[in-house]
């Protein structure tokens, strides 16, 4: 039994292949690269029951991850996040089988840690000493932290408007942090230049092939947590879209292993109305998306005007009979408060967007009443203090509570 | 097989007993009450291997929890947090077998959610409709959120200096929140009055017997994660001390079940120099602690001048050959940065205090080089943004990174 059954890298556009033992970024043709595994061999050697005694983290799927030597694994205990039945919220939406995959319960409080754990581990394995990346905040925080453990130097560039806590995380981890008066695209250009100037490894979304392997573990976990069945619908807040592409890839791999049947969940890309390039392309029946102008949303993690993997996102939606849908900031903030007060789950704005989308799709009957529906909450609400306004009385020690104050 | 093997409540001071089917708070004698289980029956019916196929949360130990009907379980997926080998930090401290139990990876980003999950579930089972509690922030946030799911009304009183994010959580959850110009003791007095005035259930630390049952699951998990062995030392940041009392109780129960051997870990109560009543009592060989005057520390969660369970904490330390130790704010903040930059773990100030204590105890040789040592990190660093100062250059989109900036 190998620790990993990784085989090679391939280009989903031009079918070119590359080695997993050398540093690779994009394909010659400009497309992101994907990771292939020796599936037939793995199918013979591994069964679902083998997982039972393994730790409750994403490394339980190490055969389907690209790290070849266990010594290179960098971990903070990420993965196997809860899949919660949202009874109260589901009742309110008339989706009795509504579930939340809660990615708030992960190091750095964001699902970005999955990509970082696997991406940084593989970077370490490949001998990377310095990497750089643009980020809307959470990915930079996660990569900084895993790089700290790995002894890899990190240079992070994020918009000045990115969630403030993510700056603190980068700094605590010892990253070289830069803020830019602009959007993630501007950060990307600065990183691209620095990568050239200083010969850094480029860890930008999909410019290295391994982050997606970390993200795909969300798909593996959802299948395992439902007893190797898939739900009917998965809603995913979509910025760069790596998680959605990853979940689709994971489920295809599980089909190859024969661990799940032919059925695929309908994948839904959820965006904010202030930045909805994928939704626009989907509605227009296009295979790739145009850059969105003047992008703006409180759901900062999905404020991505142009996704490098747009064609992969649109393909995954199409192949699974899914859809793309946008919600307004007002709607998603209202949904955030509904979920917190009904269910006790303080979700991030991006997760709230996905809940709001579920509500809309149920209202239009695209989601049926008996569908089993999974909403991805991509991070902890505690990273976004500005989504809640507090109006609490201040008492002196000698005061007492007068019931009129009670709401 | 019953869902719970709970038997009754008993008083550790006067041996009085009470029913678990009625609302109970303190014993007539003023002591906290503890929960007893039918251990011999459970020993016959449950084996460690029965846990293997259960979910990765604290309800995997439902037989050892006080909720009798599964329908009353209120959950956000809490528990089975990672037990991480801290290789880099351990090397730095010369404690090769240094582990962190990371309670940051839990709903609301604080171990308080364990107590809240079990406490609120039992409150729901007992028909509680309204409860009130004083808090240093995190417990109030956690109880508010679980109460929201349970449909229980919550009134929360916290010091104005409590971490600001915890106000947001209470508000999002729909709690009635009050801030007090004072410390948690002042909040406690206001709650006590409100409990009388409005006939509320008092969910103050140890004034209801079930929170500790949630906290004890940390002990159950540590034992299970080490393969039903216990470490040599457990360091616990101690305010109210419920976690330490709970871990001790858990390990005693596992001994009764025969799942672990006779050995107990040495339990260490870690406090801040600005609020160290337990350390003072321990040094003076007393059985209970005097209230600490002018308590102040950046590790706000352990800013507890007088713990109701002080005698139980001191007893647990004594029985296990443990100790109590205080560290300065300066030392713990320095340790927080060390752990983040060496290991990528952004811990809370209370957790940092426990790491700093491990370093001190190793230096004095109280911790031996080959001891297996577990530090409890009681919450996520992202709830405490003020522990890190950021000094990052702000670039314009047309700028490029000049390497001099790189630290």
Question: Topology, please?
Answer:
Two copies of one chain form a homodimer.
Chain A: E1 6-10, E2 17-18, E3 34-37, H1 39-45, E4 83-85, H2 87-93, E5 98-102, H3 112-125, E6 130-134, H4 138-150, E7 153-159, H5 164-173, E8 176-180, H6 184-198, E9 201-202, H7 211-225, E10 233-237, H8 242-257, E11 266-272, H9 277-283, H10 310-319, E12 323-327, H11 329-343, H12 349-363, E13 373-377, E14 394-395
Parallel strand pairs in A: 5-13, 6-7, 6-9, 7-8, 10-11, 10-13, 11-12
Antiparallel strand pairs in A: 1-2, 1-3, 4-5
Instruction: Name the quaternary structure.
Output: homodimer
**Number of β-strand runs of chain A:** 14
- Measured as a percent range, the helix fraction of chain A is 25-40%
The computed structural class of chain A is: alpha/beta
Strand content of chain A: 15-25%
**Assigned CATH class of the domain at 83-109 and 214-384 in chain A:** Alpha Beta
Q: What is the averaged pLDDT score of chain A?
A: 97
Q: Uncertain regions of chain A: pLDDT < 50 for 5+ in a row?
A: none
Shape of chain A: globular
Major sheet of chain A: 6 strands, mixed
Q: Evaluate the radius of gyration of chain A.
A: 21 Å
| CATH third-level topology of the domain at 83-109 and 214-384 in chain A | Rossmann fold
| Helix segment tally of chain A | 12
Largest binding interface between chains? A-B, 87 and 87 residues
Record the strand order, biggest sheet of chain A.
4-5-13-10-11-12
Q: Between the first and last Cα atoms of chain A, what is the distance in angstroms?
A: 60 Å
Order of helices and strands of chain A: EEEHEHEHEHEHEHEHEHEHHEHHEE
